[in-house]
Amino acid sequence: MLSKSSVTSDPVSPRAALGGTAILMACACGTATSTAKLVALGGVGASTRMLHPVFIGVAAGLIVYGLWRTLRLSGLLAVGAFVVLALAAALTPPSVMTTSALPWSSSQVGGGGLYLLAAGILGYAFWRAFPSPRPATSAAAIGGAALATGCSCCLVTGAVAGLAVTGGASAPLIETTPVLFWTGLAVVTVALFRLGGIRAAAWVPAGGLIVKYGPQVLKLTGDWTVSGVNLRSFGAYFATVAGTSLIMYGFASAFQAARFSTGEVPWAPFAREPALG
User: Fold this and answer.
1) d(C-alpha 28, C-alpha 33), whole Å
2) Which of 135-149, 175-189, 230-244 has the lowest mean pLDDT?
3) What dihedral do alpha carbons 178, 89, 38, 211 form, nearest 10°?
4) N or C: which end of the chain has fewer CB within 10 A?
5) DSSP state of 276
6) pLDDT surpassing 80 at residue 168
7) Cis bond leading into 274, ω under 30°?
8) What is the pLDDT of residues 58-77, one digit of tens each?
9) Which residues pair with 195 in a beta bridge?
């Protein structure tokens, strides 16, 4: 059983870490493209490849801050994970995670492997920072979330698909990565069910449906074109972040329920903040 001293009493830190994870999980490729077009209207030259890391940087800042405030070792591991992620993106940028760019070269395969390494380091950082009464189940949940991070054109999901196709899998796999996404979320759902029951687990498929179909619903509203830029991509991005945030809420609910079931203190995201004055 975990000691109370192993649980942070600061509610801000885990919220920052979970919020950053929600942003990291959301695909920002389309939004980065639209942002590049917008800033070009102001005379600033910026490519999608330059702007996509900005979204990752925001997520990284929140995650590192949250983990550092929770457990110093996990904060350092998170910094290392994002350094590895930067190296992975340099070798295998989102622009090569498309059917036309496959199969990958040896260096791009190495970059794909680094994406997985970065995910593993970051997952371990979370596992250490937020211990669970059921460590193996917690590890499964974190691993499933890692697989569902990104899309066919970026991050872990794109890396897994690209490595699989380069290794001989059917090329259409790169276009059917919802299979990878839903496989990852299925693992998360089962793991969170074991940790916190149906109420915690139900947030995962609910969030997944918003991630995958929220942007599709927005297409029914037509294009939101301003000066040649379709702003609907921003609405789609926020819908995706809303969905991944629900998935993270499922994590927080499950960990809280698991701690109550073993007599531990509530997890910090649900801890009551001290009154001022």
Assistant:
1) 9
2) 175-189
3) 20
4) C
5) P
6) yes
7) no
8) 999 999 999 999 999 999 99
9) none
DSSP SS3 for 198: helix
Write b or e for each residue in 141-163: b if 16 or more Cβ atoms lie within 10 A of its Cβ, otherwise e: bbbbbbbbbbbbbbbbbbbbbbb
How many angstroms separate the first and last alpha carbons of the chain? 35
Helices assigned H by DSSP within the chain: 12-25, 29-41, 48-70, 72-91, 106-129, 135-147, 155-166, 178-196, 198-201, 203-219, 232-261
Q: Specify the DSSP class assigned to residue 154.
A: B
CA distance 276 to 131: 29
pTM given for the model: 0.87
Instruction: Please state, in angstroms and rounded to a whole number, the distance separating the CA atoms of residues 89 and 143.
Output: 20
- Condensed to tens digits (0 to 9), the pLDDT of residues 114-162 reads 999 999 999 999 999 998 889 999 999 999 999 999 887 789 998 998 9
**Which of 162, 44, 2 minimizes the C-alpha distance to 95?**
162
Q: How many residues belong to the chain?
A: 277
**Residues forming beta bridges with residue 226, ordered by sequence position:** 229
d(CA 146, CA 245): 14
The alpha carbon of residue 81 and the mean position of all alpha carbons in its chain are separated, in whole angstroms, by 13
pLDDT over threshold 70, residue 189: yes
